Amino acid sequence: MDNSGLYVGLDMGTTSIKVIVAEKVKGQLNVIGVGNARSKGLSRGIIVDIDQAAEAIRSAVDQAQEKASIEIQDVVVGVPANMLKIEPCNGLITVDENSREITDQDVHDVAASALITNLPQEREIIDIQPEEFIVDGFDGIKDPRGMVGVRLEMRGKVISGAKGIMHNLYKAVSKAGLNVISMILTPLAESHEILNDGEQDFGTILIDLGGGQTTASVVHDHQLKYVTTDPEGGEFITKDISIVLNTSMDNAESLKRNYGSADSEMASEDRDVPVDVVGQSEPTIIDEKYLSEIIEARVDQIFTRIKERLDKINALRLPGGIVLTGGVAALPGIVELATDKFDINVRLYIPDQMGLRHPSFSAGLSLVAYYSDMSEVDMLSRSAVDASMTQVRKAHSQVTNSSNDSSDGKQTGKQKRQKDNKKRGEGIRKFFSDFFE
Fold first, then answer.
1. What is the mean pLDDT of residues 123-135?
2. Residues in a beta bridge with 224
3. Is residue 95 a contact partner of residue 102, using CB atoms and an 8 Å limit?
4. Are 19 and 30 in contact (CB under 8 A)?
5. 121: phi > 0 → left, psi -120 to 50 → alpha, else beta; which?
6. Do 307 and 317 touch, CB atoms closer than 8 A?
7. Mean pLDDT value across residues 266-281
8. Prediction pTM value
9. Domain 85-162 in this protein, CATH class
10. Which of 138, 179, 241, 407 is 20 to 30 A (C-alpha) from 383?
11. How far apart are CA 380 and CA 386, in angstroms?
């Protein structure tokens, strides 16, 4: 499949929003533009203010447009792993009673049939992962197209998330003037880009240490098997430094980046670190080891909670070990601390693309790489998900518009009560005003 073309990935993190513009030519993905803006309207990876989030997205997109010298309209959006569920799914369709060749439409239809599940109203399907196709009882088929059969089945995994999270994400991107061509689960994209073939096959744990939260994903047999999130990340480390050293958040972030280490054993007691303390004209001097002890305490706490969950599913026995990425993974000593904590082999992933050689760009780059590498079968299965999500949003939009139209025509009981209460309030205020005069 020739996936040549331009791709734009949008990674919406708690502390920063990143836009990656990449061009794929003859199988080679080259980054031609990058945008990076401070996040607004997000908390722990979730949008809490649509207008502010849209403004931050637009700022990052404008930067990427200027650097890439193109106008960005279509984006691939990363979906956080909050409130995620991974469940088995099965699809079945009759191709033709007299048997015929299986087509692209048949693959789309069998994926759509697998999506018919009894999901609660508050959940929405994010993605579907085909594991195998079965043609007339013959299993283990990866691509059934061109085969002749009467009955086509699909077995795989369906990934669902909270409908509110998905809606707000889509709404913020749309409000920024962009068209969402696909919404992809970020850990799924990262596992595809970051882990090599052997790590995906034999089993590996991928830990993304973000600014607002930490996400741990387990990949085995080339499938995303388990995802968990911890509600703490780099932002909490900065807050700890700010509180303990009585300094501003900006100064605390600067201290973390310039002098910090996740492993206090690697830090020096002889190296002085100046700290601008609130209320003092002269900076206070501390040693590097003390700063690192503050950082290590928080990172160790995050690792402890992640380890407890991974132990419950025996994930730490997988031969691939742990791969660290995300902005916090740039801290010196993070690999050593993780190795001691989890007692297995740990490596650090940093993108090798020019201008993106920092682990905080892993998610954005993974989105464009994953989407550009999707096979035709994956695209056809994915199209069923996109069609389903489009119908849900269209129905929601119609209900919202209908509600707005009806409210314009007549007052609801609540609106009438509010109007009556307002009149009574005005009457009471006038009484007291006259009384005191």
1. 92
2. 219
3. yes
4. no
5. alpha
6. no
7. 92
8. 0.85
9. alpha beta
10. 138
11. 10
